[in-house]
Amino acid sequence: MANKRPPWKIPAVINPEGRRCVQIQIPDDPEHISIFWGVLRSLSDWQRWQREPTKSGTLVAQVWREVVYGIDWEEGCMGCCPEPTNRRYNENGELEVSYDNGGTWTVDPALDDRFSGVVAPDLPGEDGSEKACIGATAGQEYVKQNLIDSLQVGATFADLNAVAVALAAVLGVTGVGILIAAFAAAVFVAGVSAVQAAFTSGVWADLKCILYCNIEPDASYTEEGWQGVKADILSTYTGIVSAVLYNWVNSVGAVGLTNAARSGFAVDGDCGDCACENCSNLDAWSVVFGTIIEQTPGYIKLASVDNGFGQQSCRMVTGDMDICCYVTVGDTTGAGWTSGAYYPCGSASPTGFPSPPENMCTHDINAVNIFGSAFTVEFLFADCP
Asked: Structure pTM?
């Protein structure tokens, strides 16, 4: 015989003075709704509560009976989740919503398709710098072919806006018309011919690198990456190129950038000329001693080599003591290292360490086995604060 469900414990306060309206989502199916209502109704059955001499279970059940049978679905309690009365975008491009006709505002990415929209399937192959470069190249080509090359001379503002809205929808982003209007206005004011002429081969090369330097190893964009793309656009371009690209990226968000990167507009890519300064792509670093076994954004595995003094060494440098990363040392295999040094950020003087460093902001890290035995070591990199 199955064990019976234990009774609910009698609350310390039988009948609180206040009441709270709680709104939840439930499966939109008659049977599910019936089951949910049955479970809720069971709170009003005294048999479900603890039995004790004061018969408090009956009193608690009565409280819940008043609650359950007093629900007014039309008034909102236990009804559909509330819809915002107002929406707006703040100066950072974030969606803010109000539920009291503009009295108070809160940032809510969950209601913003730019962050909650449907994301395209992952690209084939292993995550890493190669996939990231393919995604960045695809994103650049997507913008070039669909957004700039396809512009029609003589198009009205309405035409430009409609095309941009439709293109954003293809990328899984809707409800951002006011942001897209800024893009359309920039193109319309400058003129299609002028815009197309401004987008030179150098502009496109820079855009690919901007996309690459902010992309994730799986060819996706986080909100931080999206913000990074916008910041890099403003620092790299001026005039109409800056206005067009910034407003477009701002309007499609992380979801739109991800879907553009996974659009299939490129099957390979070359990002070797992209000098990303952020540590996730490791492009600021050079290997002085060591052979690369594996390298992905934020990670490198090296096999030691002789440093010319009969010692085995793995050493990486940025070449500029003010270009630094936090470095965490992962697994070491083989004989391991016996000594080494790192150069703290901004310092030309090395600091020795008897064991692998952890979370040090450095521009030069050198692992050495002074006895000449070979080893491998893993370095993980993250941006300094």
From this structure: 0.58
